[in-house]
Structure formats: C-alpha cells, structure tokens
C-alpha cells in the first residue's frame, strides 16, 4: 500500500516548503516529453452498441459538434483591465475573510488588487488551456489503450472536442488578453502521471473523473461570474462537451471497477486522492503571488490554514468529483478510506448531488441552440 509520501512526494500534504519546491524550472521549454508505458490494443469485435450507453454518448457527440471559429462572437471587445476593476468594485464592501498580515498583501490598495484580479484571470485561463492540451493527449491515448470498440469510437469524438477547446482558449488568451502563464508545475505533474501510467483505466480516472470533473465545476463557476459575452459563450459551449467527457469516464469505469479486487480498488482510491491534492496545490496560484512580489511561503501558509468549510470556492471545485466517485463505487470501496479523505477535505457533502452520466444531456447548450435555430 502506498504511503502518503510515495504518492505526493512529501509526508505532510500541507508542507509548504515541499509544495513550493515544485516549480516550473524551465519556463521557456517548448516541448515536454513523457514516457507512455501502456499497450495499444486492437479489437476485432466491431459490434456497435455492445455497450448501449457508450453508443448513445457517441451518437450524441456527433450531433453536438460546434466550430470554434464560426460559432463564437470573436468580434467582442474585451478589456481585461476594466473587467478586473469591476470585479474589485463589486466586492469592495465584502467583509475580509482572510488576514494577509505578514505576506505583503496586507498593504495592498485598490490598484494592487485590480492587478491581482487581472493576472489571476490570465493565470486561470492559461491553466485551462494547458489542461485542455492534457485532455487532448490523454484522450488520444485512450483511443489506443481502451479494449472496447464503442469506447474507441466515442474517445475519437472527444479528441476532436479537446482540439477545439485548446484552440478556443489559446485564441482567447492571445487575441483578447495578451497575457499568459506557463503550465503550473502541480498540474504538469498530474498530467505526467496520467499519461505515464500503464493501466488504461488510470487515464480515465485521472483525466475524465478528476481533471475534467474539476474543470466542469470551474468552468461553471467562471461562466456564472463573467458578463463578457465571448468568454461566457465559449465556457458554456466547452461545458456542453465536458459534461459528455465526464459521463464517458463514469460509464466506462462503472463497468470495469466491478471486476477489480479490493486491493486494486484501493490503488484507484489513492490515485484519486493524489490527484485531488495536486489540484488543490495548483489552485494556490503560487505563480501569480510570486509575480506580484508577495512573500509566497507566508501566503501559502495562510491559504492552507484556511478552514475547508470557509473555502467555498475550493469545495465547489469538487462538486462533480464526489458524486461521480460514489457512482463508480470508489467512495465506499474497502474500509471507507476515500470517504474519510473527502470528509477531511470538507467536500463529502456533495456525495448525493447528480452524477454526470445522469445530467450530461441537460448541460448540452450546443444542441439546445441548434434546436432553437
Ligand atoms: Fe476539454
Ligand atoms: Fe474534456
């Protein structure tokens, strides 16, 4: 059984020095190479709809395609500075939740917080873009490694979806924001683990359940916050696809996990917690604080000490992951270890929310727009 240290490379998940030791040391690198240990599998069983739910998803994916070039209002005027200032003004009267004493940020005025808002949005959108490329590569891998015909066909549609997502986020950052960030090192390590693993279901668990489950919630949050019409439609259309992707993970792993032993399921539970910790580390936005000259270790200490119950944003990011792991049977497999972990992370309250295999149809705005003409 893996120890916490083996999983995340440190004994204490809140060890700030260890978290900050993981940095993107080569911000100028163009290519990043990851060994892929898995077998490519051909199947000679071409029975379509042998798995009816996957076949239904495949048929839906074919009719819900959209074109990132022509279906989004790219002529919209976007003023990142103004958006950052408006966000700041909206929250000017909120009572402070966090005491930033000792970080440098306690001395910030309006100007610095507006700059933070602007960089934080650049950073968030850049991580979405890098994560989308991770999904593109991971799903290309699933086409090769999954043994089932219906799943290979479906995965091919997801490869196209992810190409479109990388395209639209990259174009938005380049044309409308003129700011970007390299990939966050915690996110990169998670993507590396997902690509490197030799077991085909681990790609699904890491990408479709954890990374995309979190992305679906994060896109939904940003979609509800933004009034900027181009970004709003872009996010809503990406979410329409993303819901299918998470459903693909749930429908595939639900079947496969029924064949696994308790010991094998425990490895999947540990992989899920490893991914959750890395994603939490990623959302500390260490690169943004660093760029603004804040005392980063002091800031990390304050953010990590925050009571999970008060960190509503971080909790909400897991609102899709928890019900989906429950649907897979992972939440309560074995001795309930994963339930304990999610309880201590303050996210167990989502367990009875809708799982994404049940709600993906209702999240499809692309189809709704087509029907509306
Ligand atoms: Fe995507
Ligand atoms: Fe996706």
Would you give an account of this structure?
The chain has helices at residues 4-8, 16-21, 52-63, 80-90, 110-145, 149-177, 185-196, 200-225, 229-257, 262-282, 286-291, 296-305, 312-316, 321-327, 337-344, 356-359, 365-372. The chain has 373 residues and is mainly α. It has a single domain, classed as Ferritin, core subunit, four-helix bundle (Ferritin, Up-down Bundle), CATH 1.20.1260.10. The mean pLDDT is 93. The structure holds fe (ii) ion (FE2) (2 copies). Residues 132, 135, 162, 165, 242 line the site of one fe (ii) ion.
- Give the full name of the CATH homologous superfamily: Ferritin, core subunit, four-helix bundle
- Tally of structural domains: 1
Number of strands: 0
The helix-and-strand class reads mainly alpha
